[in-house]
Design a protein that fits this description.
412 residues; 1 helix; mainly beta; four-stranded antiparallel β-sheet
Length: 412
């Protein structure tokens, strides 16, 4: 191909390319402005925004939940106080939106006391939900709190094994021996029971002392059985500890040995299962407890019997509720409320920690009539922990084991 031919072809190509580009620019920027073309913008007076055109209704597949709001999958989510506008007032009230620990009923029966791990302080919550500071004293990283029954005294245990006694009324603080473990206050708070655990097994005892550690007295030698002995001072003052050292019973039953202050030879308590967990009635007249066995699918089951040492274990009755005794709170000697897991699987008694956050129903248990009634709780999806019933029986205060928050439930 000659040089002249190449120049002619290049010129033709350039002309065609220019025509194509010109047409493209015309189509994009000028065609819409010609007569008969549909405008793409709307001209409005200065300062106004264009209005939305008339839309076409679109069908949706969601269904309305409480208050008419749609919920995913057509399932209405539970609504708590402060979370929305339920069709009926919620009985569940969020009292504190933060991790709350060591709930205990107030000495006057109105509300409860608790520990706030975020600031290391202790607070009181009234029946109406008002929260007040018990004192400015701070204790961080508390592992366990043992409350007085009639007074605002506490014994605090820390992860490093140290123990501190504190009296909020007197603002008195005392460091207790680190080899003392498992504290429990006497009914009048004048003493505590504890285990003194020496390095040598021959130097391990069940002891009593004043809460500040003075006047310590050894009651029983524990030897190799320290881990099988548990402090639990009954409200009538008769029993201050129990142990799993009795003779093994048929069908996984246990013989629970009870200890008193004066070496009493109390009758043993025979229980039909393992992992005995007691919860004394307010006067100590009765004892509620949970155990599990193969007949219940290794699920914990509630039982109640006489708690008086003269007739301990008499009138034993199953409550036919699968839960742990410390998820129950006494309203009186004949009435209690229990958090009962809605779906407790077989074998839960063998590894409780795996099922600690299961949602609970609340049951009202009337021992006088023998009736256990599930209360109407359409909005309850909480895992009840350390429940407390206030003095007039109108509120159940508890923490949620799943999130640590503090709630109350209207019983009336």
């Amino acid at each position: 191909m000659t040089e002249r031919t190449k120049k002619i072809l290049f010129a033709v190509f350039f002309i065609l390319f220019s025509l194509a580009m010109g047409y493209g620019l015309y189509w994009m920027f000028f065609r819409a402005a010609l007569p008969g073309a549909k405008p793409t913008t709307t001209s409005l007076p200065s300062g106004q925004l264009p209005q939305a055109g008339t839309g076409t209704p679109q069908a949706t597949s969601t269904s309305a939940g409480p208050g008419g709001l749609p919920t995913a999958g057509g399932v209405a989510a539970p609504v708590e106080e402060g979370a929305g506008a339920p069709t009926t007032p919620s009985k569940i009230h969020l009292l504190r939106d933060g991790v709350t620990q060591a709930i205990s009923g107030s000495p006057d029966g109105n509300g409860a006391r608790f520990y706030n791990p975020d600031d290391g302080r202790f607070y009181r919550v009234a029946d109406d939900g008002t929260i007040t500071l018990m004192g400015d004293k701070q204790f961080f990283n508390v592992n366990n709190v043992n409350w007085g029954n009639k007074t605002d005294q506490v014994i605090l245990q820390f992860p490093d094994g140290s123990n501190v006694y504190y009296d909020f009324a007197k603002q008195q603080q005392v460091t207790l021996p680190s080899h003392w473990q498992d504290f429990n206050f006497a009914p009048d708070d004048s003493k505590v029971v504890s285990k003194s655990i020496g390095v040598d097994t021959s130097n391990r005892f069940l002891i009593t002392a004043k809460p500040d550690g003075t006047e310590a007295k050894a009651l029983e030698s524990l030897d190799e059985n320290a881990n099988l002995t548990h402090s639990s001072w009954s409200p009538n003052g008769q029993v201050l500890a129990w142990s799993e050292t009795g003779t093994p019973q048929p069908e996984n039953g246990q013989e629970i040995i009870l200890a008193g202050q004066h070496h009493e030879n109390f009758p043993a308590l025979m229980v039909p299962g393992r992992d005995f967990l007691p919860n004394w009635s307010p006067t100590g007249k009765d004892i509620l407890y949970s155990v599990w066995n193969t007949d219940t699918g290794d699920r914990p089951t509630l039982w109640v019997s006489s708690g008086d040492t003269a007739s301990i274990g008499a009138n034993r009755e199953p409550l036919k509720l699968n839960t742990w005794a410390d998820k129950c709170a006494w309203a009186s000697d004949t009435l209690l409320y229990c958090g009962v897991p809605q779906d407790l699987p077989e074998g839960a008694g063998l590894q409780r920690s795996d099922f600690a956050t299961l949602p609970d129903d609340i049951y009202r248990v009337d021992l006088a009539s023998g009736a256990a009634t599930k209360m109407n709780l359409p909005d309850l999806t909480h895992a009840v922990r350390t429940p407390v019933v206030n003095k007039d029986g109108s509120k159940l205060i508890f923490t949620d084991a799943a999130n640590g928050k503090l709630y109350s439930y209207d019983l009336k």
